[in-house]
Amino acid sequence: MSADPKRAVPVSLSREGSDFLTITWQDGHVSRLAWKHLRSHCPCATCREEKLKKPDPFQILSQKELTPLKAVAMVPVGHYAYRIGWADGHDAGIFTLENLRSLCQCPECTSQSKAPSSTGH
Ligand SMILES: [Zn+2]
Ligand SMILES: [Zn+2]
Hints:
Number of helices: 5
Largest sheet: 3 strands, antiparallel
Bound molecules: zinc ion
Mean pLDDT: 85
Shape: globular
Radius of gyration: 16 Å
Strand content: 25-35%
Order of helices and strands: EEEHHHEEEHH
CATH topology of the domain at 10-51 and 68-108: NE0471 N-terminal domain-like
């Protein structure tokens, strides 16, 4: 890991409208993250288990699925992570700063993650 230590240090966090979180990082990069995107990458055990289940086409759509996902709270956990609380009451997911940075959806970051970074000489 040769990550720039400034990479995962936020200088400001703000809401953009009701659907996005904007994080400005110490290296000058700005990440615009959709709440939905963050929720679908929730690192808690419950969400990870849910992702492993096969989708059931006969499931009843619950209030949870019909309510647009929004964060209602973002609480710092130490100096390295945030616990995000959602409108449906779920708040078990702890997003580390590294995690938030890696979820950045800007063209720069998405093209970086696709390109292999290490190649043999
Ligand atoms: Zn979760
Ligand atoms: Zn980015």
